[in-house]
Amino acid sequence: MLFTWLSLALVCLLGAMSPGPSFVVVVRNPLYRGKSAGLLAAWAHATGICFWALLTVAGFSVLIRTVPELFVIISVLGGTYLGWLGVRTLIHSSSPLDKMKSEQNGSPWLGAREGGLIAFLNPKTGLFFLALFSPFVKPDAGALWQSIMVITPFFTDGLWFSFVTLVLVRPKVLAALRAKSVLVNRLSGAVLLFFSILVWWHAIFSIGNV
């Protein structure tokens, strides 16, 4: 079981470290709202990951394959949310200082909202669990292994993004990134829009095959 758990933990860590919309959204929070918002975003995102893991263990992957329309709905919602974030980021990219001040004065719980929503609505998360996580699901597994399968991605994801947050809020790193805030905002917005288009394209393609 130890080797299987280590394999599971490695898969979860690689999934958390992979670049994508979740990384962009979670990382923006410590840059513009501070450490508290970054940590809240990290663990809210981990909660969303835990939700997907729980669904996979409960057999949701089988349901998705049986009723593909469910995944299409998730893709449409996720693509729309990513597009909204991307457009909002690009709109404010030309006035980064004012935007940073207004966001920093906002509640750190805004970070939790963004981190949680991007985990729940990001189809990449669902595909990850369907493709890579499902093989670890054992029909005859007991409650202990099922609990481990849910807890492992939660802590792996939360600890990884907490580490990233603590690195980003270091004074020298934060100052360097904020000096390039216009570029950071534009790249972030472009990446989010790119993933939004990919998600929508996948959703349209999936509709044609449902």
Sketch the topology as an H/E string, one letter per element.
HHHHHHHHHHH
**Average pLDDT taken over every residue:** 76
Strand content: under 5%
Q: Main beta sheet, described?
A: none
The coarse silhouette is: globular
Find the count of extended strands (DSSP E, 2+ residues): 0
- How large, in whole angstroms, is the Cα Rg? 18 Å
Helix content: over 70%
Number of helices: 11
Low-confidence stretches: none
Characterization of this structure:
With 210 residues, this protein is an all-alpha fold. It has one domain (2-8, 24-209). 85% of the residues lie in helices and 0% in strands. It contains eleven helices and no strands. It has helices at 2-17, 21-32, 35-57, 60-66, 69-91, 96-104, 109-121, 123-133, 143-168, 171-179, 181-209. Helix 2 (21-32) crosses helix 9, helix 2 runs antiparallel to helix 11 and helix 5 packs antiparallel against helix 11 (181-209). It starts with a helix and ends with a helix. The relative contact order is 0.22. The mean pLDDT is 76.
